[in-house]
Amino acid sequence: MQPAVSSLLVALEKLHAARSGHARPLRRKRHHHLVDEPLVIVPLKLAGEAAAPLGCAVGTDPDDPLLLTVPQPRNRDLQHAFFLELARVVLDYIAARQTETEEVLSHRRDEPPRLRYADAPQILTPNRPALEYLGLLGRLTRFQETEDEVPLLGRWLTFFADRAEYPGSSLALAMTDLLTAQWATGQSELEDANLAMLLAWICPPEGMTGAQAARAAEDPLDFPPAGPATDPEFDNLVLQPAVHGYDRAAAAGDRVALARAEAKIREAVASQLMPTWRLMWKGLERLRALPEAPHCEQRWAADRDRFTGHVDHIAEGGPPQPRHDHAVAAAARLATLERAQGRFEAEQALDDPFVLAELRTLGEAFGGTVVDREPDRTEVSPKGRVLLRPRLTVRTEDPVRIEHDQTYVSPERPRQTARIRQVVDDDSGCLLVLDVISGMGTPKRPAPIPELGETVCYTRAPAQFGGQEFPAPEETPWTHGGPPADLDEPHREPDQ
Amino acid sequence: MNELDTRLAALRGGTPPVNFSARAIAGLTANPGCARRALLDASGADKGLISARVGFPVRFGQSTFALARGRAFEEQIKANGAAQLLALLRERLGLAIEEASYLTLEDVGEHTGREVRAAHTANLLLRAARDPDDAGTLFDHPMLRLTVAGHTAYLEPDLVAFKVGGRFHVVEIKSFAVIDGQVDSEQVTAAARQAAVYVLALRELLADHDLDPEIVSHEVLLVTPANFANTPVVSVLDVRKQLAAIRRVLARMSHIETLLEDLPEGVTFDLAPDAEGNPTRDPAELSAALHQVPARYRPGCRAHCELAAFCREEARRDDSLDVFGPALSGLLGGVDTVSAALSLADGSRRPAEEEADIARALRHAESLRCSLP
Questions:
Q1: Which one, of A96, A116, A92, A101, lies nearest residue A36 by Cα?
Q2: Among residues A84, A124, A301, B53, which is most buried (max CB within 10 A)?
Q3: Are B369 and A139 an interchain contact pair (Cβ–Cβ within 8 Å)?
């Protein structure tokens, strides 16, 4: 996810939010697909432990969450019972996304069409640490050698946590990320990471400004932290005595007292989970009301491909994700994420005037007026063919960062791409000479290009598939650890 | 007591000075430019009590579960003469295990006062440093001293290892897990800072006794549990960067006179405690005294300073960009307030010469903002 204050445009909106006391809209579209039935998970962990779960609220029905608690989070058997229950919910949810498939035609004529699921799971958590925590639980459980479904749960949680890092993917999302992409508040990024304070700005209670509501929401007594860490005061005053009571009852073998202690812990944990659970659905409602960006469909299709791929991988008896990425896999993954980030940004700019304007302040996109045009201009290719290469001159006041081998595209004419050929500085801005290099048609049948005096915007064209080549694992150079000792170790699947 | 001490004591007033923990000293490096905190800390004032008195009660504190976990892991590491740790150190430092001895410095007979303990620690550590026949020794909970703005701070590292080959190593035991070689970088940074404080204190002790301070290694041994079990692993942390930062901040604290000089006559943070120790100072008056010393608020302050909420309120009142955090202030380089930024953006204020660039960028962004649907 992009940092919250990524441009002067966002900065200005934050200042206006602070000035007015109300959140300000940022993006005009929502750039993540939202399914009709997401699986909301609000996990809590025990303080001081690496991954010991304390409880979670999970489900697809806002009025009926399943509340799971671990009365003594350090007890491995109780932990396992928790994972078993969570596995049942998560795996049932995943199975229910596999009822319908669709045929996808290959780009290559000699390849048969493939099948992919028409639906895919979507996990929603309150914040990014919760997503990372689910990944940690995945790491904890996917190698467990039990006959039940816990290792499978681990593989899926790992899958979701992995996809959550992929820009533009909607398989696993954090509510605070989604909301900060759409609204500017008058508070800092640290405060925006607090779901209660963030939503207070976006939908304050009647009669309150966002700023006032956010102040009230800062009190962890009324608004418990969204997790996965709990409020230390809750730990010390409520949870610790309750867990102590449970331990005493367990040691005494007193069943009645044990049940009573367990109910007490359940109630205590629920008191911390339920406010966040309700906030999750409130946030979701606001997000659903926003128009979805056109490119979402394509990205969601890619998500469904990944989902289908992982279902197949498991069905074929494939191994769980490795503990470490090998050097080559790690480098390939980084390159993939970087490419995905660039593509996601470019697609957002084409779909959303706010993102386009933001990129214009950063010099990565530009807008201006057409002051000259040569629609019939031609060039002769090295092979002697006459090519249509219309030329436009655009006057802009934007601080363009010129990159000559960068391809630009305009939201109005998404099939036509252009390159900057020349830049001439002028008193109040600069003149950009652009050559249209694709989508211009042929000299006999030219496609329309912008008119004189027309206002145009250009942004970086989304990169097509492909990217840097990486060596095969067995050809890893010694500088990067050499070929892996154990070539059977599973590797991450490559980019789609 | 010299003149500086007298002035600092007057600033603090009737409450006893707060002892600096290593964590607090390490925290000083987090926002070293804040004069308000530097003065309060140097005077030994209790920021938590002051903050509560001016209407911002602090909810600092750790979960009892985290504390219990930390204690249990430390006990496990130190059990049986630190058997687990010795095995690990033998691996990492080449410490011959049969030579190792283990000295507990937590109790000194009947006298467990910190001065006595510190003197005892100093004796043993100095003897070890001077001993040419260097047997490997683990010192458990030594008591070290470090001077912070004229006050003696007492510090208690988890362990100090004296290695064959003549170097001291600070050993920091932390209960956060290293999972598949990955650790939470924030926690490691905090541990490194804290350990650097111990390294500094040890080096000063040696230097004060004409011994080479460099025999205290800048490589600190961090002992943490691995993965999801309790098996310890040792990582070596190079704390040179943290050492430099702490030295800088301590040097600044010892030049606290310059901050005091800027202070109007009669300013004090005295809580005026009554016989039971309850503060009686007028909150409005105390607030006014705090406002006399400039702060440098950052949203991150709440992680290490009890006054953070007070300073945030002040920043809001002053229309300061600091409430949004350093990322936004960085983008608006040179502009300090919300109204200054907005008036540059809408062109209602002419920019000063040094504001020309940011004003142009703001006007450009504002024109794009206004043309949005």
A1: A96
A2: A124
A3: no
Q: Tell me where in chain A the CATH 2.40.30 domain(s) lie.
A: 364-460
Q: How far is CA A240 from its chain centroid?
A: 36
Cross-chain Cβ contact B332/A11 below 8 Å: yes
Q: What is the pLDDT of residues A152-190, one digit of tens each?
A: 999 999 999 999 999 999 999 999 999 999 999 999 999
Does residue B227 come out as left (phi exceeding 0), alpha (psi in the -120 to 50 range) or beta?
left
B232 contacts chain A (CB < 8 A): no
In angstroms, the Cα distances linking A249 to A257, A259, B51 are 6, 9, 41
* Residue reference for tokens 């840097």: A468
pLDDT at residue number B109: 57
| Residues B193, B198, B199, B203, CA torsion sign | positive
SS (H, E, C) A388-454: ECCEEEEEECCCCCCCCCCCEEECCEEEEEEEEEEEEEECCEEEEEEEEEECCECCCCECCCCCCCC
A45 bridge partner residues: A53
Task: Provide ipTM, 2 decimals.
Answer: 0.89
Burial category of A42 from C-beta neighbours within 10 Å (exposed 0-12, middle 13-18, buried 19 and up): buried
Q: What string of DSSP letters covers B195-215?
A: HHHHHHHHHHHHHHTTS-GGG
Q: A259 — contact with chain B (CB < 8 Å)?
A: no
The answer to whether A353 contacts chain B (CB < 8 Å) is yes
Largest interatomic CA distance in chain B = 80
Q: Which CATH class is domain B64-250?
A: alpha beta
Domain ranges in chain B with CATH number 3.90.320: 64-250
**What is the rounded distance in angstroms from the CA atom of residue A92 to the CA atom of residue A82?**
16
Percent of chain A with pLDDT over 90: 74
- Contact of A23 with chain B, judged by CB distance below 8 Å, is answered with no
Q: Does A11 touch chain B (CB under 8 A)?
A: yes
Q: Is A28 on the interface with B (CB under 8 A)?
A: yes
Identify the CATH class of A364-460: mainly beta
> Is residue A382 exposed (0-12), middle (13-18) or buried (19+ Cβ within 10 Å)?
exposed
Of the candidates A15, A46, A51, the beta carbon closest to that of B341 is on A15
Number of Cβ within a 10 Å radius of residue B285: 12
Fill in the amino acid letter for A442.
T
Question: Would you tell me which residues 215-254 of chain A have a C-beta closer than 8 angstroms to some C-beta of chain B?
Answer: 220, 230, 232-233, 235-236, 239-240
- First-to-final CA distance of chain A: 20
How far is the C-alpha of A366 from the C-alpha of A456, rounded, in Å?
8
CA distance B306 to B37: 10
Q: Which residues of B102-114 are buried (b: 16+ CB within 10 A; e: fewer)?
A: bbebeebeeeeee
Looking at the partner chain, which of A9, A15, A51 has a beta carbon nearest the beta carbon of B368? A9
| Residue A251 · residue A257 · CB < 8 Å | no
Contacts of A340 (CB under 8 A, 6+ apart): A166, A167, A168, A169
